[in-house]
């Protein structure tokens, strides 16, 4: 099988490429990636030189580049991991989110339609559903996105639905809870907090720290997308969740403990604008129809993640210089 992965140099895309090359010795992968700040060519050092792995630099919103990738590689399946994903960045500058998450998804749908590609799997988020106080979002929950990021993802997901209904373009949409694990850019809360603590810095906890997120380990997410790319039905939506809910404060305490720190390292900072209180997602459909279950507990996955950042300082230390620090200091300087 030939699989085109967009955003393959980012956190989830690169983990998926490693997973596919390892799991399916006959599969070929083309990584089509724009190499934005969140991508890292070092994410795939072990794939370089593998005859079943190719890289092409390109932007999914660029029609010509997308066409070239489809025409040259002729994929059986496309996995769309390319996205601008960081809520705080979307609050400061929404435009890049619209370009990649909406226009980019449109360009991929058009290319899949033009080339008669077998399937497009859209990797999306539970954040399109908004915040939920009790219970969990199902595949039928209405979209109520609250940040420019989630609104942009919702726009892309709506286009997927429309292309299926209007043109029968074979697309499957996934909504996942928050991911974590090795190779995640240290702007998302887990790698940011781990790396701050490893550098002896405090961790900026937003608001009262009682917002709730559901966390899935990257390897479990790869296994879910594996099931969906092979057996997910076109036009269907699948939620990917773990059932592992935690408040940000509990999460922070776990990271403090794993890194040998205590609560004095918490810096309570001003809350994020429009901060969703809780996300929770029901993955019963994926379990019942495609036989998938998460395998890694949060305790296990978090310990493995802390260990990875400890063992791979050369991967993240350069990422935490200059621009990135300024960016956060500007935004959260006042409490
Ligand atoms: P994040 O990793 O940005 O993911 P998302 O906003 O997509 O869920 O944030 C996860 C949670 O952690 C969210 O409730 C915001 C909170 N958070 C902090 O408290 N401090 C931080 O510095 C960051 C980045 C996030």
From TrEMBL:
- What range(s) does the NAD(P)-binding domain occupy? 4-303
Protein's GO biological process: nucleotide-sugar metabolic process
What UniProt keywords are attached to this protein's entry? Lyase, NAD
Tell me one GO molecular function of this protein: dTDP-glucose 4,6-dehydratase activity
Source domain of life is Bacteria
Supply the EC number(s): 4.2.1.46
UniProt enzyme class: lyase
Catalysed reaction(s) here are: dTDP-alpha-D-glucose = dTDP-4-dehydro-6-deoxy-alpha-D-glucose + H2O
The protein's required cofactors: NAD(+)
| Keyword Plastid attached | no
Tell whether Lyase is among the UniProt keywords.
Answer: yes
Q: Write down the InterPro entries for this protein, in alphabetical order.
A: dTDP_Gluc_deHydtase (IPR005888), NAD(P)-bd_dom (IPR016040), NAD(P)-bd_dom_sf (IPR036291)
The family annotation for this protein states: Belongs to the NAD(P)-dependent epimerase/dehydratase family. dTDP-glucose dehydratase subfamily.
| PANTHER family listed in its UniProt record | DTDP-D-GLUCOSE 4,6-DEHYDRATASE-RELATED (PTHR43000)
Protein's name according to its UniProt entry: dTDP-glucose 4,6-dehydratase
Native source organism of the sequence: Candidatus Kerfeldbacteria bacterium CG15_BIG_FIL_POST_REV_8_21_14_020_45_12
Classification lineage: Bacteria, Candidatus Kerfeldiibacteriota
Question: Gene encoding this chain?
Answer: rfbB
């Amino acid at each position: 099988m030939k699989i085109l992965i967009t955003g393959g140099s980012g956190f989830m895309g690169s983990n998926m490429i490693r997973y596919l090359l390892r799991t399916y010795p006959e599969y070929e992968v083309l990584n089509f990636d724009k190499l934005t700040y969140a991508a890292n060519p070092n994410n795939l050092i072990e794939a370089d030189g593998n005859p079943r792995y190719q890289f092409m630099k390109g932007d999914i919103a660029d029609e010509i580049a997308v066409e070239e990738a489809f025409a040259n590689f002729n994929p059986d399946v496309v996995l769309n991991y390319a996205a601008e994903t960081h809520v705080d960045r979307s609050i400061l500058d929404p435009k890049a989110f619209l370009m990649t998450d909406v226009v980019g998804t449109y360009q991929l749908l058009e290319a899949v339609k033009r080339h008669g590609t077998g399937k497009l799997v859209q990797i999306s988020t539970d954040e399109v559903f908004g915040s939920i106080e009790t219970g969990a979002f199902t595949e039928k929950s209405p979209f109520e996105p609250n940040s420019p990021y989630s609104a942009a993802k919702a726009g892309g997901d709506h286009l997927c639905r429309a292309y299926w209904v209007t043109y029968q373009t074979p697309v499957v949409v996934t909504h996942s809870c928050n991911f974590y694990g090795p190779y995640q850019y240290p702007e998302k809360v887990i790698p940011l907090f781990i790396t701050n603590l490893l550098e002896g810095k405090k961790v900026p906890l937003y608001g009262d720290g009682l917002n709730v997120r559901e966390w899935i380990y990257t390897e479990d997410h790869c296994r879910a997308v594996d099931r969906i790319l092979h057996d997910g039905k076109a036009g269907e939506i699948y939620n990917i969740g773990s059932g592992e809910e935690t408040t940000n404060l509990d999460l922070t305490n776990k990271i403090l403990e794993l890194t040998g720190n205590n609560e004095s390292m918490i810096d309570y900072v001003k809350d994020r604008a429009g901060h969703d209180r809780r996300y929770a997602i029901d993955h019963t459909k994926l379990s019942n129809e495609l036989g998938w279950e998460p395998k890694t507990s949060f305790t296990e996955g978090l310990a493995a993640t802390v260990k990875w950042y400890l063992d791979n300082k050369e991967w993240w230390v350069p990422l935490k210089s200059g621009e990135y620090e300024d960016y956060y200091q500007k935004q959260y300087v006042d409490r």
